Amino acid sequence: MHKKFHDGGKRAAEFLKELLVRCPRCEQQALVRSNGVPWRVTRATLTCSSCGHSDAWPGRAVQPGRSPTCDPYFGCALWFIGDIKGDVFWAYNREHLAFIRSYVAATLRIREPNQNRSLASRLPAFLLAKKNRTAVLKEIDRIAKL
User: Fold this and answer.
1) How far apart (Å, rounded) are the C-alpha atoms in residues 8 and 4?
2) What's the pTM?
3) What is the pLDDT of residues 79-127, one digit of tens each?
4) Is the pLDDT of residue 2 over 70?
5) Residue 1 pLDDT more than 60?
6) Which residues contact 132 (CB under 8 A, 6 or more apart)?
7) What is the pLDDT of residue 111?
8) How far apart are CA 126 and CA 16, in angstroms?
9) With bands split at pLDDT 50, 70 and 90, how would you rate the model's confidence at 6?
10) Which residues, 6+ apart, have CB-to-CB distance to 34 below 8 Å?
11) DSSP result, the chain
12) I want to staple 21 with a disulfide (CB 3.0 to 4.6 A). Which of 4, 9, 76, 146 is the partner?
């Protein structure tokens, strides 16, 4: 029996309103919230429930050269970063991680509408390789427990 996944054309930007990151002060989990997608954001905040650290993004341009494993506003490392046989992958939040997990676990992947800008079309090949499926799912499960 096939595990079926339908992506619905969902885009990565749909996961960018809330990002789980490492607090720059205590390295515990912190939350970055914004009022939109990076190229239209006017407000973003960082809050850490562990140490109480908070910050407000001053509204300057998002830095395009930043690593994709960092948030685009404060430059904090994302909370969900994994390694599969030397290749790095990341997720913005639990919903994004669940999307990736569901897509990888599926043996029947339906991309409708089939758009080049969908998140499914942008996932790296090492995540989708059948030979890596078990390792990817194991690593996703590991970082989901963090």
Assistant:
1) 13
2) 0.88
3) 999 999 999 999 999 999 999 999 999 988 887 776 677 888 889 999 9
4) no
5) no
6) 84, 85, 126
7) 76
8) 23
9) confident
10) 16, 17, 18, 19, 41, 43, 44, 45, 57, 73
11) -PPEEE-TT--GGGGTTEEEEE-TTT-SEEEEEESS-TTT-S-EEEEETTT--EEE---PPP-TTS-TTB-TTT-PBBSEEEEETTEEEEESSHHHHHHHHHHHH-SEEE-SS--TTSHHHHS-HHHH-GGGHHHHHHHHHHHHT-
12) 76
Backbone CA torsion sign across 30, 20, 22, 58:
negative
What residues does 90 pair with on adjacent strands?
81
Q: Across 5-19, 36-50, 122-136, which has the greatest mean pLDDT?
A: 122-136
Query: For residue 129, what are the contacts with CB-CB under 8 A and spacing of at least 6?
Result: none
Residues 6+ apart with CB under 8 A from 54: 45, 46, 47, 48
Exposure of 126 in the CB half-sphere (CA atoms within 13 A): 12
Q: Measured between alpha carbons, how far is 13 from 46 in angstroms, rounded to an integer? A: 18
C-alpha–C-alpha distance, residues 140 and 134, integer Å: 10
